[in-house]
Amino acid sequence: MIKITQLxxxxxxxxxxxxxxxxxxxxxxxxxxxxxxxLKRSLDARKTPLMYNYQLGVFADGEEKIVKKLKNKDVTxxxxxxxxxxxxxxxxxxxxxxxIGAGPAGLFCAYMLAKAGFQPILLERGEAxxxxxxxxxxxxxxxxxxxxxxxxxxEGGAGTFxxxxxxxxxxxxxxxxxxxxxxxxxxxxxxxxLYESKPHIGTDIxxxxxxxxxxxxxxxxxxxxxxxxxxxxxxxDSGISALQVNNGQWISTxxxxxxxxxxxxxxxxxxxxxxxxxRSKAFAVGVRMEHPQSLINENQYGKNYPDSxxxxxxxxxxxxxxxxxxxxxxxxxxxxxxNASSEEGMTAVNGMSYHARAGENANSAMxxxxxxxxxxxxEPLAGVEFQRKLERAAYREGKGKIPVQLFGDFCxxxxxxxxxxxxxxxxxxxxxxxxxxxxxxxxxxxxxxxIKGCEKLIPGFARKDALLLGVESRTSSPVRIExxxxxxxxxxxxxxxxxxxxGYAGGIMSAAMDGIKVAEAIALKFKPCYD
Length: 531
Prior knowledge:
- The structure is a single chain.
- By secondary structure, the chain is of the alpha/beta class.
- The protein has 3 domains: 2-77, Alpha-Beta Plaits, CATH 3.30.70; 91-279 and 479-528, FAD/NAD(P)-binding domain (3-Layer(bba) Sandwich), CATH 3.50.50.60; 282-472, no CATH class.
- It is 27% helix and 26% strand.
- The protein has 12 helices and 26 strands.
- The protein has helices at residues 15-26, 63-70, 104-115, 129-142, 176-186, 203-219, 265-273, 293-301, 382-398, 407-412, 441-453, 508-525, and strands at 2-10, 33-44, 51-60, 75-77, 91-93, 98-100, 121-123, 223-225, 230-236, 239-245, 249-252, 256-258, 278-280, 283-292, 317-320, 324-332, 336-339, 349-352, 361-370, 402-406, 426-427, 430-432, 467-472, 479-481, 495-497, 526-528.
- The strands form 7 sheets. The protein has a 7-stranded mixed sheet with strand order 15-16-19-14-23-20-22. It has a 5-stranded parallel sheet with strand order 8-7-6-12-25, covered by helices on one side. It has a 4-stranded antiparallel sheet with strand order 2-3-1-4, with helices on one face.
- A hairpin with a 3-residue loop joins strand 10 and strand 11.
- Helix 3 runs parallel beside helix 12 (508-525) and helix 5 packs across helix 12.
- The longest helix has 18 residues, at 508-525.
- It starts with a strand and ends with a strand.
- 48% of the residues are buried.
């Protein structure tokens, strides 16, 4: 394969234009071109006209001769790394491995183990995604919360009701990342996720993808149980021996994967009581901030941008006093701010986009870093209590609805009384409240400073009528459940902390990849022997 690392074309080009440009660059006739695979496509908006920049895999007659003749640093011989699942475990596993949690980490762990013949059992405290969708819609319409099936809990995990972003900063030399993308595409996502530089699926499509993955796991011999919360674990001889479900049934196993998600606070507490090693860790908290999508588009594309371009995204970061970072997170072009609460008397928000990203507003979390020393305790679950304190304050400010404050009023520490030119685009009811008062003042001041600093990067970002909605408290897990770097096990044998909730991932892609890594670790240690 010939790898082309940079090839630019105007945004309004056709497929045949790409082939022609490849042939021209490689100085070959079309008859010698066998195929072109897009490895990555990004939009270069730094100059006009706007251009797409491609990385390509090209298959042609006489590839090595072509590359040698050209002597072009952007044209080299390359290989696509094909992911291969390892085998080789010798220890007999008398009961199937049990995966706790059906978010991206749990789903991919179960999928890989099912493909390898392990007949995994997948336990999910919430409902199947179809029923979960109904519960979430009901909550947004009425405010009546189901604490077991909501935006945080249920098949697909918290990422199901988000933008479905598939970015990751995880270095990958084994092909896991592309395998995850291909799996999503196989189960219903658009093929463009395989090459777009900022791929996303969208909540509306993610629901179907998750359901299709579930059906495939079952067809491969896996067993999936919904409304099944793990409420206790049994440890014998420093190893896992069984799991209790819903305070009743016990399931025997020697391999239990803790893919519990970042909001399983009661499960964290149970694990702590059973002396599973864990510690608090740094994360970030803040607000959702809404702007007109047209403002972001014009800043990124220029004023007369073509309608064919997708809703633009941004990524911002600033340093503020106390050496804290303020940065945008989980940016949702054309999206909604959603009530993502999972506990009574508390309010948490998140961002969500449908596949089309056609909403009037852009939103992202604008968050500030917090450290264990901010939590007021050195207990492992101190970060959880820190989150809860903010969420209770947000609930009080909105009286159960999403509290909203104009940025100008946030700076003056007063409750807003009327909107400017931007209307909240939310899933779940909203009301005016003093969002600033939710946070300790040092964090509020840091958010104000950071947002004002972003005005230099996006003119209009710190406009007075921009909207702040609170509280964004579930950016990542406040806990790390300790595991060995090589075996992926806790010091309790057979316990495999996994994914975002355990502190080893930060989004759909990295969680899915971590689920695969844990499945590999199990396959390298065990072999199924259930007769």
